[in-house]
Amino acid sequence: MWPDDLQNHTFLHTVYCQDGSPSVGLSEAYDEDQLFFFDFSQNTRVPRLPEFADWAQEQGDAPAILFDKEFCEWMIQQIGPKLDGKIPVSRGFPIAEVFTLKPLEFGKPNTLVCFVSNLFPPMLTVNWQHHSVPVEGFGPTFVSAVDGLSFQAFSYLNFTPEPSDIFSC
């Protein structure tokens, strides 16, 4: 017998590799909410939110992650050419939405969130603009897998809103 209050949850550990950039990626999500992505240049987890920073320090599975990376790269080299033209290059168009992390209050610091959905393959570069002028200093872009071999991405920009502001990502 299962207790009536038992809930099903999903932990998704997704490793992907491709000819494009990024060439290899790993994301971990719980119930489709991304917890971390793995920065292969630093060999460490990067938390999507500051609250996950303590968990990001856990490195016990680093050898398994590096094995996954090497296996993924081997598959691209050995199997990739045999599948050329048989796997779709892209599916649909990415959809970007911009919203604030907290309710908007002019003159008070806030964070803009750029949420990109319907992303396949997981290759993108997020750039921010303020009044059509490129903005520097935004955070990293977090790419995570969702059901159905699709991906989503988040990018964050800290700002202090003014009534005439126009931002885009």
From TrEMBL:
Keywords for this protein = Disulfide bond, Glycoprotein, Membrane, Signal, Transmembrane, Transmembrane helix
Its principal location? Answer: membrane
Q: Tell me which domain of life the UniProt entry assigns to the organism this sequence originates from.
A: Eukaryota
According to its UniProt entry, one GO biological process term is: immune response
| Annotated GO CC locations | MHC class II protein complex
The similarity annotation says: Belongs to the MHC class II family.
Name of protein: Major histocompatibility complex, class II, DM alpha
- Species per Swiss-Prot/TrEMBL record: Homo sapiens (Human)
